[in-house]
Each structure stands twice: as C-alpha cells, then as structure tokens.
Design a protein that fits this description.
Length: 752
C-alpha cells in the first residue's frame, strides 16, 4: 500500500554576533531565541513519540550558545538587563529603552500588562530614548529589565515555579527578582543542546548541519553563480571565487557537529537552501548523504513551474515530481535531494498565526493529504517536505505557537495514513526515487541569489570581502600562526549570508546599522590581525541613509474574491506586495495604522487589498487609492483615477471612483457590473482595466525599443488613510507600487 510520509525540517540559525577581537556580542538575538524557541521545539515532541522530525542547527549558532552557557559571552544587552537600575548611567538607561522593547508588541510585550504599560509610555515619547528617559524611574527600569527577559522565555520555562511566581507578581520587582531571572537564563540556556542530543539518541529527531558560518556556498564558490540563476544580474566589480573556502566552511560544520553530538550528520541544509552543482560536489566528497532546498530550484532545473492552484495544490504530474526523493547524479557526484513544498511551508510561516490553533492544524493536515493524493492514488509513496525557519515565525503566534503545534502533532501521531519521519528515515523507506541529472543554482528564495548579490549594497559588500581576502592571501605567510588563524576566521565569518541579507532593498530592521558596522568590523579585523591598516572605506557605512520597505513584484495573475472578511492566502498568491518596517527609518513616533498592501491584475481587472496594523480605527476615516496608467517614455499618466472610500464606525458608508472632477459610473456602495469595493476585516477592491485605458500586452510590446508611446504598459498605485482631511498613514510612504501589464504567460515566464 502506498504510504504518505511527512518530513518537517526546522532550520535554527542566528548570525554570528560576536566580535572576535573585542569578545563582545553586538546583538542579543542568539541568547533570546535560544531562550524562547530552541528548547521547547524539541521538548514538545516528548508528548508525541511517534512524530519524528529533523532539526538543522547551524554550527555558528551552537558555538554562540556554548559561549553563553560557559559564562564567557560578553553581552552588553544582558549586562544592562542585569545591572541594578539605580546604578545605570544615563547612556545605559537610553540603551535599555532603545533595545529592551524590541519584541513583538502583541504576543510578547502585550502578554504582560506592566511591560505594555512601559512600552506605551515609551511610544508616547515618540519612541525616542532621549525624550523618554526622564519619564522612567528606577522601579520602571527594574520592571523593564525583568519583563524584557521573561518575555523571551520558552513556554516550558514560564511554567517553572520561580518564573511563574514572578509573572503572578506582575510589577514592582526587587533586585533579588532581577538577579534570579538573570541566573535562570544561563541555566535555561544550558538545557538547549542536551535536549537535542537526547532526542537524537532516542531516534525521534535527526540533527542536520550547515556550513559553519552560514555562507551562500554557490556564491563563495563563484559569484558568477548569481548571473547563472538570474541572467543579466549586475555583479560585483571583482569576481569572488574560493571553492576552497566553501569546502572549509562545510568541513568545519560537519566536524564540529560530530564533536558536539557524538555522531556525524548525514544531511546538510545548505544556508538559505542555496545549492549549485559545484557546492553539491564538495558536499559529496565530504560524505554528505542528503541535501535539501526549495521546489523553485527543482522547477528551474526541470524547466517546469510548480504552479499551485487556489487551494495550494499541484496537478498530478507536478505532484509526482515534487513529492518524492530525488537522486542527483553527475559524474562521480551523487546526492539524495528533497525539495520543500513552498506553499505548505509558508502557511506555517505566514498564515496560520492568524487562525485558531485547531482550525489551523486541521487545515494543514487536510492540505497535506490533498497535495499527496495524486501520488498515492497511482500506487506510489508520497513524501511531503515542509521546511522553514524554526524560530522567527513563533513571535507572530500567541504563546509561541505551541497550541498550534500540539494540535498539528497530535493529528500526525493519530492519523494512520501518515508517517511523520526524519529526512534520513524518508530516504531509507521511500520506494520510488526520481533521478536528477542537472541542477540550476538557486536558493529557497525565488530560486536565485538576488537577496545576497546584485543590488549596489550587496555588490559593494562582496567587493570589500574580495579585497580583504586578497590581503589575507598576500600577508598571511609572513604572520604568526595565531594572527593568521584570527584573520582567516574573520574571513569565514564575513562570508556568512547574514550580512548581505540586510543589504539591498529586500530586508531591513531596527538593527540594520548594527549589522553593517559588525560586517565592516570583521573585515577590518582581517587587516589588523595581519599587521595592516584597514582601508578608509571600511569606516563608512555600506547601507544607505533611509529605511527600505519590502516590495515583492507581481509574479502571476490573481483572481481574488472581493469580500473583505478574510485573507484567502492562495487567491492573493502572486500579487505585488508592499510592507513597511515599523521599527526603523525616519518615521519614529508615528502611529502606524496600515500594515501591508497588495495589488495585481488579471485579463480584465486590477485588484487591491489593504491590511490594517490591528483593529480598524474607531474614528471616521477615508481610504484613498490613487491609480495611474502609464505608457513607455511618457512624461505624464495616460489616466489618473482616485478611489475614495468613506468609513464610519468600522462600516463602509460610500465609495466613488473619479477622474479629475468627473465621477465614473459606479454605485455608491456595493457591487456594480464593473467594480467592487468592500471593507470588513480588510479593504479590497476590483476595478476594470478599461477604466485605466489598459489591457495586458505581450512583453515585446511592453519592453521593446519600439513600444508605443500611447500604449499603456504599467499601472501605479498608492494607498493612504485620511482623517479630518489630513493623511495619517500611507503605503508606500514614498513612491508607488508598479504593475507591469503583461500577459499571464509572459508574467509566468519571468519566474522561470
């Protein structure tokens, strides 16, 4: 009988925050995530002995945890949290206000009334440590120091007697309370690695590894790989090619894992799921048995697009291609490969946090079965791989997602039609292996490396690394062994993926400048360790001076139902999406009401969706959407429309679409034959393309040198919220969302 197996791989990783020269940790996130997620994710499985899973622990994460457990970690964030409030200097008080509120405002801060009270006081001062400091007394700081640590404790740790007592106390903590929390942190951190080792010894989990400092192996092997996965991508001025470093990173990871856990890992999750034939060949020669990445890489390698329907399902042929073990063979290189189901993985990462736990778990089990059914019905085993970040998603779930996971694991354990297995168990038991003769380089993000290379900031970072690596090659021979080792260690750290994650337009955070400074410090340490002087440019920031919101362009036609009552994830898949980071940039102190906007087209309409950053404002307000249609080479829009929607008491009172002073033929509220505008949980609309003098066209007409100056080739949209005739929030804050008016085939072809 055909068997359905579910492989869940949790990837646990944090950047290497330690400055090897000063010994200081520049950021606290390794400690905080180790307290919040790593222990409980494994401990929870003791309640479900038949559920087997794979945990990927990055070596540079492990060594940082060991540093904290040994008491050797110099963490200024921990030092400020531990210092008696009455002894804090002015700068330390400002430091505490700047960093101890960096947590999810609802699921972490909002869980503790006193913590939220202090946070709201800080926000009332414009999120400014300079302005807020005078409003915080020593007792306020003590409460902040205690609760900012408890807020990051694992659910299992919160149940322990001492911590539960402090939670009941709620406020007015003493110095003894503060010291107890700090002492327990180290004790709790000491449980993280042993719980993994014990579960692995019992066979309930498999522990895989990654290259030591989490580099993008294909790019370390050769930065030209960036242009292979994305032809035409701008590359750094200097070609970085060091496959010997890639081998060193992976060799160290395998050796270190064996030293820590007493067994050599069989599998590798390559950093960010990044693979290339050269990187796989290196792994094969080092004895790695399996590697994993994303379905997008498989699709590009096979010349296919794994296009999921509105329910997240693949057609029968694509399901057979994805839900199996692949055996890559090329010359002497052999590697078992699994490719994650991108949609199922993203449901856990981004969608189920907003649903009741039982409903979310039932939905996931149902989708797993439906996805596998075409394969099972043909008599073949189906292996459904779910692979995702094992830490960051849980901030968005109530109580770290434990109730969702309990219900999901309970369903896995008690469903006779499902086996929850490790990757190695899946490889051993799977009866149908699919051969794979070639592999296109790519990662689990868009099946390319564009997050880490191609943007001006990314390329500058690679050029700086190139020069530091060349300096090492020239100066190392004349240096003492200790200096040489330190310099090379800094090179390996700088090869890590995390620095370029924050460079470029895709991602940003409140700590962008900290990451930038630490990256340049690692490179400076290379020169100093070998007796050289760091170049002047390493004293200058790589990042620009403005916050960079996240924008994803439209990748497929969308056909959403315009209801406003719930987010139908799959109906909006493929839409352009714009979100803005609320913790950094020039708009500190502002009350943000808008969370994200989505937009996309199909053959006939343009669609838009506006998500709010919480409940709808209670006061009356107006939503305004500006829409423009543009031709190539034009100096002004072909047509400008404005959608106005009046809201009162959470209800949509009226809406209209106007061109200048002229109102287009729409009803006041509700559906017409042409347009629809709805507001319930979110704001959604549908407007005919003809109203914008627009229709999809072929890519040659849209982008070609002879494209018409009077043919609409793109749309631009901007969303804003107004109260009392004044704009109070907008997305994008600057600029527009742009949609290319391409045929569906051309739009999809751009993804291959």
């Amino acid at each position: 009988m055909a068997q359905l197996r579910v492989v869940v791989l949790w990837h646990q990783h944090q950047p290497f925050y330690k400055d090897l020269v000063t010994g200081q940790y520049r950021m606290p996130w390794t400690r905080l995530h180790a307290l919040k997620d790593y222990y409980g994710m494994v401990k929870l499985l003791e309640e479900f002995p038949q559920v087997h899973q794979t945990f990927n622990l990055v070596p540079s994460l492990i060594t940082q945890i060991q540093d904290y457990v040994s008491g050797q970690a110099q963490d200024p964030f921990l030092q400020v949290a531990a210092k008696p409030a009455k002894d804090l200097t002015l700068e330390e008080r400002k430091f505490a206000l700047q960093y101890l509120f960096q947590a999810h405002p609802v699921n972490v801060i909002g869980r503790y009334p006193r913590y939220r009270e202090l946070w709201e006081r800080f926000r009332g001062a414009g999120d400014s440590p300079d302005r807020a400091e005078k409003y915080f007394q020593p007792q306020d700081f003590t409460d902040l120091q205690v609760l900012s640590q408890i807020g990051w404790f694992d659910e299992f740790f919160l149940e322990e007697k001492d911590i539960a007592g402090l939670i009941r106390k709620g406020r007015n903590y003493s110095l003894e309370d503060q010291r107890l929390v700090i002492a327990l942190e180290r004790h709790f951190l000491g449980r993280v690695l042993p719980v993994h080792a014990e579960a692995a010894k019992k066979g309930q989990i498999e522990i895989s590894t990654s290259p030591f400092y989490h580099p993008i192996l294909p790019l370390v092997c050769d930065t030209q790989a960036g242009a292979v996965s994305s032809p035409g991508l701008p590359l750094p001025q200097n070609r970085y090619r060091h496959p010997e470093d890639a081998r060193e990173q992976l060799q160290r990871g395998l050796d270190f894992h064996q030293k820590v856990f007493g067994m050599r890992p069989r599998g590798v999750w390559p950093s960010e799921g990044s693979v290339s034939e050269e990187a796989i060949a290196i792994a094969h020669r080092l004895g790695v048995r399996w590697m994993a990445t994303d379905e997008g890489v498989l699709g590009r390698s096979l010349g296919l697009l794994f296009s999921h329907d509105g329910h997240g399902h693949l057609n029968s042929d694509l399901a057979h291609r994805l839900y199996t073990i692949h055996q890559y063979e090329n010359g002497e290189t052999r590697m078992n490969m699994i490719f994650r189901d991108h949609t199922l993985s993203d449901l856990i990462g981004f969608v189920y946090s907003g649903m009741p736990p039982q409903e979310a778990a039932d939905n996931l089990i149902h989708k797993i079965k439906e996805c596998a059914q075409p394969v099972l019905s043909s008599g073949h085993d189906a292996m459904v791989p779910i692979i995702l970040d094992g830490e960051n998603a849980w901030e968005y779930y109530p109580r770290s997602g434990r109730e969702f996971l309990r219900r999901f694991y309970d369903a896995l354990q008690n469903d006779p039609g499902i086996e929850a297995v490790t990757v190695e168990e899946a490889i051993t038991r799977h009866r149908n292996v699919s051969p794979l003769k070639s592999l296109v380089p790519g990662s689990w993000i868009s099946a390319n490396f564009n997050v880490w290379i191609g943007a001006p900031e990314d390329n500058k970072a690679w050029d700086y690394l190139y020069h530091a690596r060349n300096f090492y090659a020239q100066a190392a021979a004349a240096a003492k062994e200790e200096q040489r080792k330190l310099a090379f260690e800094e090179i390996l750290i700088a090869e890590g993926s995390d620095w370029n994650w924050w460079y470029g337009p895709e991602h940003h955070s409140a700590n962008d400048r900290d990451f930038d400074e630490l990256y340049r410090k690692h490179l400076s340490n290379v020169y100093q360790a070998l007796g050289g002087t760091p170049p002047d440019y390493l004293a200058q920031p790589i990042i620009g001076g403005v916050a960079r919101p996240s924008f994803t362009p439209q990748s497929a036609y969308i056909h959403p139902r315009i209801t406003g009552d719930m987010v139908r994830y799959f109906e909006w898949m493929g839409a352009a999406c714009y979100t803005a980071d609320r913790r950094s940039g020039a708009m500190h102190g502002k009350q943000f009401l808008l969370d994200a906007v989505f937009a996309g087209i199909d053959e006939h309409n343009v669609y838009g969706r506006l998500d709010f950053a919480g409940k709808l404002p209670e006061d009356s307000f107006e939503i305004v959407v500006n829409l423009e249609s543009w031709a190539n080479h034009a100096s002004k829009p072909r047509r400008e429309l404005r959608l106005d929607a009046a809201v009162e008491g959470g209800r949509l009172l009226s809406w209209k679409v106007t061109e200048g002073a002229e109102e287009l033929p729409t009803a006041t509220v509700g559906k017409t034959e042409s347009a629809r505008v709805v507001l319930l949980r979110n704001f959604e609309f549908c407007i005919p393309l003809t109203w914008l003098l627009a229709a999809p066209i072929e890519i040659e007409k849209a982008r070609g040198p002879k494209s018409s100056d009077v043919l609409t080739t793109r749309l631009r949209l901007r969303f804003s919220l107004w109260q009392n005739h004044l704009p109070v929030d907008a997305l994008p804050v600057e600029g527009w969302i742009e949609l290319e008016l391409l045929s569906e085939g051309d739009l999809l072809s751009l993804q291959l």
